[in-house]
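User: quick one - fold this with Double cubane cluster bound?
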Amino acid sequence: MKTQAIEKLMQKFANRKEQLYKQKEEGRKVFGMFCAYVPIEIILAGNAIPVGLCGGKNDTIPIAEEDLPRNLCPLIKSSYGFKKAKTCPYFEASDIVIGETTCEGKKKMFELMENLVPMHVMHLPHMKDDASLEIWIKEVEKLKELVEKETGNKITEEKLKEMVDKVNKIRELFYKLYELRRAKPAPIKGLDVLKLFQFAYLLDVDDTIEVLEDLIKELEERVKKGEGYEGKRILITGCPMVAGNNKIVEIIEEVGGIVVGEESCTGTRFFENYVEGYSIEDIAKRYFKIPCACRFKNDERIENIKRLVKDLDVDGVVYYTLQYCHTFNVEGAKVEEALKEGGIPVIRIETDYSESDKEQLKTRLEAFIEMI
Ligand code: BJ8
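Assistant: Sure. Structure tokens for the protein plus Double cubane cluster:
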């Protein structure tokens, strides 16, 4: 029961490499990114192209482990491995890569990656006070200068306004999608929505808008007709599941669950909060609010999870941590406590990109879904 919009998404993704290299030939610069904190409006306003580079595959981990420790987050190793092996077309297309000081592992990996590709690292302060916001606004100003220098294009007020409106449009459409996912039965599978988020980091923005608009129309019809997927309604929260990493959602939906929401950077952290205004400061303020576990005292994240549980009428929460991701793992204790206090069932899963634990995860998730 795939929607035509999801078929279109897969088609656009299949054509994306060719389209991206053509855009490059036409003179547009490509900015690789590793994080939801990078304000893509600024890159787009310089007529450059943002692409997400986080790795979600196991294949590139062995080559990464020649330089990086084995006991490191698989997302970091996979990403580094892609660059070292030169096997990711998006990485190879990137003229420059933007990193940010989020978690320790990523930050230190960037110091090694600097030897492989031109890099610019943004200083993301971990505190949430006004002094930290000032630092972040300056970092976003520096990004604007960098984009202007790299592209040779001036970022005008008009261009910035156009791109703020465009990226806000994507946010609005994702909000609508989440509204529709409140319906029972759920009008779309979690696996399809995950692909949508994964590819939104890679596709041309206009293509993402087109797919989302089509999808919303189709899902509105489904909701009107009462069509969709039955099953225990699951919210996933935690580390992002970037392209290539679908393991947990696949298992959940195999054993009787239906994922109806994702509190993740392949989920709500990608689109929540609009940019309210057209200045660099307005843009910086929106990104500063992203509640990633790398920030100190991140209680907004817990509030968001509780709100999503209520809004989406969730039966249970799967707290997802990538192995050796200390920030999300430690924060998991607070989230678990808050959910248990509210009587919300939660299971904590820690895994990597290998298939070796699939059966064990299946057994645990099946038991959880049966129990809730
Ligand atoms: S804003 S979640 S995209 S940092 S999983 S590499 S945190 S050890 S990916 Fe992330 Fe930006 Fe935060 Fe989102 Fe480190 Fe954890 Fe690995 Fe992570």
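One thing worth noting: The chain is about 55% helix and 10% strand.
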